[in-house]
Design goal:
- The structure holds two protein chains of two kinds.
- Chain A is mostly helical.
- Chain A is built from 19 helices and two strands.
- In chain A, strand 1 (60-61) and strand 2 (66-67) form a beta hairpin.
- In chain A, helix 8 crosses helix 11 (300-321) and helix 10 (272-294) packs antiparallel against helix 11 (300-321).
- The two termini of chain A are 22 Å apart.
- The relative contact order of chain B is 0.17.
- Chain B is built from seven helices and no strands.
- The longest helix of chain B is centred in the C-terminal third of the chain and has 29 residues, at 162-190.
- In chain B, helix 2 packs parallel to helix 6, helix 5 packs antiparallel against helix 6 and helix 6 packs antiparallel against helix 7.
- The radius of gyration of chain B is 17 Å and the shape is globular.
- Classes of the chains: A mainly alpha, B mainly alpha.
- At the A-B interface, helix 5, helix 6 and helix 7 of A face helix 5, helix 6 and helix 7 of B.
Chain lengths: 487, 202
């Protein structure tokens, strides 16, 4: 076993082991186990990300394990968001009054599932095989559906049920695509579906194209691409805030990476332009569907959920354009979106403590009654809107410029117009949030805000570094390695 | 696999779309999976034999789990679907025919098996879309997975990967376990495993 394989094993084993210990440890030590496990898991993820991103031109591509730049980026994001989610979880658990399980098992089940979900998520970018990736993605559904419905409230039950059934059905369609590819493999078995051998399938161009379409249509149901995004707004709204952050900032891009790798692996058979056009189609449709919702006065978490739909569309467009400019934008967008979106979801716990009616109404005038909370939410929303100089502004410019460079001016133009409309919608929500008429006179209550201040400081530094990275990333080895992919 | 056996599997699938009782539907998907396992066991290759064991284990485990849940959540009367059985059957057959027309040759050992796979996937999707009983929706997902198992068994050259067969079986059992947790909570909350009580599943 090589060093990178050992590191990849540690990235998955650390959260998996923490899940096991948290599930069986005495109740009073479970939160401490979670903190220690989260730090160890995040450290392993950071080490792997550093190794993969420092040497992007020399990926490790084994039969079952892949450690490349894209995987390193995703593992880093998952580690960062996982750590932050584990650290803010006590604030959520202290305010949650109901649960899917009996009170004595609440902590064990919550942390056990959270870390199991983290372990499965971390394995998705590292698995060297399409079949294995499908199994892991399906397993994330089982772990995260229970977390979505964790509060046990009727709306959470509905959201969890919808998520479980719709994504399982969608992944069934993706599996049919995988079976079609396996049917065309020269030799059966798991090896035939490894990322490096997937391009060798001899199913015929027509059948491979159908398999690719089925695969992407199925994965789209999990990524939350329109028109199969039906579960996403409900699941993000009803899940505990730390879980919503993991779902949006880590799960969606991790599954998107599977679609990206499939596109790169099958491009030699079905044609690069065709493979990319399907991604561009999903991206543009997701943007078009999301933008009108960004103009509505939606409750905070629901607004963030529709923003996820928009941003997964932007990433799909960047991957679909496929030029170094666009791919540099994609890398920046994945990281910037993760930081801003996670911060936004973490603000939900203090927000609902400060203004309980925000669960069903748009957040208004928060900066007037609770300036710190207003600032945290404003930083998150301003970044997600793409307000200059946020990294998402830079990444969107890179992706649109990449679209023009790819010879798709109409698509890039339409994307720019939709992004501008989305920006205006979120800017309106931002103004309401900061300067609108407040619904509450309560200036004090905001549980969990103290811990959030530290995370906000770290987030601001991270966002500034990401904006600075936009200047060198397009011409870097990293962007070239991401464009090349595993092939 | 003989054409007759494929059409028996399809008929069992259509039965799941139209029947009202949960126990009968569980019996139909279990019979389907066991028939598939028997057929795979009949083939000489080692990988198909392993696939057969995985399928049979999955079928028995799911049947035990789902029947246990049915006995724990007795409904006063079967949950009514908003769509009549005949209409459900009609939509399912129409979707199956449309898929057969749209999807090109897959490359399985027989064209009958390919049609059977597409029909079972269509029936599963229609079951999820038109049934409001929670357990029937889970059975729709199982029906889709049985269709994919048929495809895996009928792959030329010794079937698909053993690791994938085992993984799919494990994943499906996990998903069914989680679904039963939700089903029991929905039953406890609303007095019936009926998704129409939830705000808007579709």
């Amino acid at each position: 076993m090589t060093d990178r394989e050992t590191l990849a094993l540690a990235v998955v084993a650390a959260p998996a082991l923490t899940a096991l210990v948290a599930a069986v440890a005495p109740r009073r030590v479970v939160p401490a186990v979670a903190v220690v496990g989260a730090i160890a898991s995040a450290a392993a993820a950071a080490a792997l990300a550093a190794v993969a991103l420092a040497q992007p031109a020399h990926p490790f591509i084994g039969r079952y394990v892949v450690v490349d730049a894209a995987g390193g980026l995703l593992v880093g994001v998952i580690g960062l968001v996982g750590l932050a989610s584990a650290l803010v979880s006590p604030a959520y658990l202290a305010t949650a009054s109901t649960a899917l399980v009996r009170p004595s098992r609440r902590l064990h089940v919550y942390y056990g599932l959270l870390f199991a979900f983290w372990a499965l998520l971390a394995a998705v970018p590292l698995i060297g095989n399409l079949g294995g990736a499908w199994l892991l993605v399906e397993a994330t559904t089982a772990a995260s559906a229970l977390l979505v419905g964790f509060s046990g409230r009727p709306r959470a039950l509905e959201a969890g049920w919808k998520y479980l059934i719709l994504t399982s059905l969608g992944l069934g369609v993706a599996l049919l695509g995988i079976v079609l590819l396996a049917a065309g493999a020269a030799h059966g078995g798991l090896d035939a579906l490894s990322w490096r051998d997937l391009g060798d399938v001899r199913a015929g161009t027509h059948t491979t194209l159908v398999a690719y379409l089925l695969l992407l249509a199925g994965l789209a149901s999990k990524i939350g691409w329109a028109p199969v995004h039906n579960w996403l707004p409900d699941a993000h709204s009803e899940a505990p805030a730390p879980v919503s952050a993991l779902l949006s900032a880590a799960l969606l891009p991790a599954v998107l990476l599977v679609a990206w790798r499939s596109s790169q692996a099958l491009a030699p058979t079905i044609g690069r332009s065709t493979a990319q056009s399907v991604l561009v189609g999903f991206g543009l449709l997701s943007l078009a569907v999301a933008v009108p919702f960004l103009w509505l006065h939606l409750p905070w978490k629901r607004l963030l959920a529709y923003s996820s739909l928009e941003h997964m569309g932007v990433i799909a467009l960047g991957v679909g354009f496929g030029t170094p400019l666009a791919i540099a934008g994609v890398a920046l967008h994945i990281a910037g979106h993760a930081v801003a979106k996670a911060l936004g979801f973490y603000a939900t716990t203090p927000l609902l403590g400060h203004e309980p009616r925000a669960v069903g109404h748009a957040a208004r005038g928060i900066a007037r009654t609770q300036p710190t909370l207003g600032a945290v939410m404003g930083i998150s929303l301003g970044t997600l809107a793409g307000l200059p100089p946020s990294p998402l502004f830079a990444s969107e410019v890179l992706i649109v410029a990449g679209g023009f460079a790819a010879g798709r001016p109409w698509t890039a133009g339409a994307a720019a117009a939709l992004l501008a409309l989305g920006f205006l919608g979120l800017a309106q929500a931002l103004i309401e949030l900061l300067a609108g008429k407040a619904r509450t006179r309560n200036r004090h209550a905001a549980p969990g805000l103290r811990g959030l201040r530290l995370l906000t400081g770290v987030s601001i530094i991270s966002l500034a570094l990401l904006t600075a990275a936009a200047f060198w990333l397009p011409n870097s080895d990293l962007a070239q390695a991401l464009v090349r992919g595993i092939g | 696999m003989s054409g007759g056996l494929v059409w028996v599997l399809v008929a069992l699938g259509l039965g799941v779309v139209v029947v009202r009782r949960r126990t009968i539907a569980v019996g139909l998907v279990t019979a389907q999976a066991l028939l598939l396992a028997g057929s795979a066991l009949n083939a000489a290759t080692a990988s198909k034999a392993t696939a057969a064991v995985a399928l049979a284990t999955r079928a028995v485990a799911l049947a035990t789990l789902l029947l246990l849940v049915v006995s724990r959540t007795r409904e006063g009367r079967p949950v009514r679907s908003g769509v009549a059985p005949l209409a459900r059957g009609g939509v399912a057959v129409a979707l199956a025919l449309a898929l057969t027309w749209l999807v090109p040759v897959i490359g399985l050992e027989s064209r009958n098996a390919e049609r059977g796979v597409l029909a079972l996937i269509a029936f599963g999707a229609v079951t999820v879309a038109t049934r409001s009983a929670t357990l029937h929706q889970v059975l729709g997902v199982v029906l889709v997975e049985n269709g994919l198992a048929l495809a895996a068994v009928e792959l030329p050259g010794g079937g698909s990967s053993v690791a994938i067969e085992l993984g799919v079986a494990l994943d499906l059992i996990l998903v069914a376990l989680v679904a039963t947790v939700f089903h029991e909570r929905i039953f406890a909350e609303f007095g019936a495993g009926d998704t129409t009580h939830l705000r808007s599943l579709r």
